[in-house]
Each structure stands twice: as structure tokens, then as C-alpha cells.
Predict the 3D structure of the following.
Amino acid sequence: MKAAWYEKQGRARDVLAVGEMDTPSPGDGEVRIRLAASGINPGDVKKREDAFAIGMPHPRIIPHSDGAGAVDAVGSDVPDSWIGRRVWCYGAQSYRPFGTAAEYTVVPLRQVVALPAMVSMDQGACLGIPGITAYRAVQVAGNLAGKTVLVKGAAGAVGACAVQLARQAGARVIGTVRTKAGLDIAAESGANHVLLLDDTLPKSVHAIMPDGVDHIVEVALGENIALDLELLALGGSIAAYATHVATPMIPFWDLLFKNVSMHLVGSDDVPADIKVEAAHALNKALVAGWPGLRIGKRFGLDDIAHAHECVEQGTSAGRVLLAL
């Protein structure tokens, strides 16, 4: 089979290779998927760059955790009824060397989700990391029925999923975006209110919620923590899944006196049962009519380095995929 891989970390064009490999066979509890699309997430790029100084956990890594396709083989203890099913998968390259940047991938059955008939393979390949991250960032706040959630970066992949999942949980949702181009994306995902992230934001939020919001889904904790404190209601909470500042300073006493709860969310380490819940919630939203995430650029496997650079540079208005 044809696949892409790297055997050392570094710049995309320096380390990514494309060639032939043996087609893998599923073991016990696993299925093999003939992939149609492979989603590329910022985390995939960061692993290849060694952004977190973890090093190479395996001698050869086939990148990307998310993908979609059809099951074509199953392990000895997996029902044959799975063969031929359209599916999406997550965590293919989470603590494992074999991701979805290949014609085939093998993953545990628990990380495979039936793809609703009306949902495209491209959309299925987008769901894993952003959808699970968003679900956890919403779910840690507890029962959100009748409460107000502020989603920062509501035009991004995690943000758009968080908007939809918070609405599904019964919350009123305020989304913030950095550019006017993002207004439609956040609204399309179901935000009740969409605001530009500028100097008028505190006034705009308090005009909607005079006492502050109940929960914030945060994409840039280090940059926004002081603003979040200003926007939160007493006893509110924050779930942060990213930061531009590796060691952010926090206003500890101000947060304490406001009884703020903070949660840090990393998709790879979300509990397994919560990942399953997230997958069901995402499918439910899609079946109910959520259009899902916008698809930006599609590349062939041979052009994987260019695709990674597109993710790094943020030059695509939508998700970046490999078409397989």
C-alpha cells in the first residue's frame, strides 16, 4: 500500500516521505479501514515538528489521527458485519505509530464509529480530534441546560464543534471570532450570538448576560485569562484546550474569590468512555442537520508536505484533508 511517514522530526519537506509499505492486518479487537480521507490537525503538525520536545516515540510514524473510509477486514473476534461499513475513526496515531496518512489503517474497534449515510467521507475525517476536544470542553461544565456558554474561536474546528455541542446540551451560546469572515461559520454552527473579539467584547457580553457567563471554552488561555475573569459569572468555569503562552500567568486570587473552576483539555488523554460519548454526540448532531465543519483544501498523498505547511501557516479557510 501507499503511505506517508517520517523517521525523524523536523520541517515537513525535510522529513515526510511517501512510498510503499506492507498493508497491515487487523489483530484481535481491531478493524482495517480502506481510507478515503485523512484529516490533518494542528496536533499532527506539532508532533512531526516535536513542538513539545517529546521526541520520536516510535522509529517510524505514519501521521494523522483522524480518518474516514470503509472497513475491509476485521480481527478474529470482531463481527464480520463490520466489513463494508462506512466509518470514521479517531486516535489512530494517539500513542500508536500507525495513523491515517495511508491507503489503509488498522485501529481498535472501540475507536471506530459508523458514519451516517448522509455524511461525506471528507466530513467524517474531520471529526475526531476537534470533536472530542470540544465535547470534553463542554462536558466538564456539567449540566448546561439553561446556562450560558461563551466559545472563544467559534469559527475554528474545535470552536464550531463546541458551539453545536453546547447547544445540543441545552445551553445558550455566545461565540467569538477574530474576523468578519468567521461570523457566518459560528452562526452556522448554532451560536445564539456571535461577537467580534475586540475591545467592545466585555460590553457586548454583559449586554447579553449582565452577571456574566457560566462557562467559557477557551482557545488561548495565556492571552485571554484576564478577559475571561471579567466575563465569568460567580462560580463559573473555564475549559482551555490551547494557549499561545506555554507558561501562562493566572490571577490566582481573583479567580479564587470568584470561585472559578479551571479545566485543561487534551484530546489524546480524554477518558475512553468520554470519547465514545463524544462520537455519539457528534453523529447525533450531524443526523439532526448540523452541516459539520467547513472543508478547505484537499491534497493528494504525494503532496502531504504542502498540506502540512497549509495547516502550519493557516492559509486554508476550513479543514485541510488528504484525499486517498
Q: What stands out?
A: The first helix runs from residue 12 to 15.
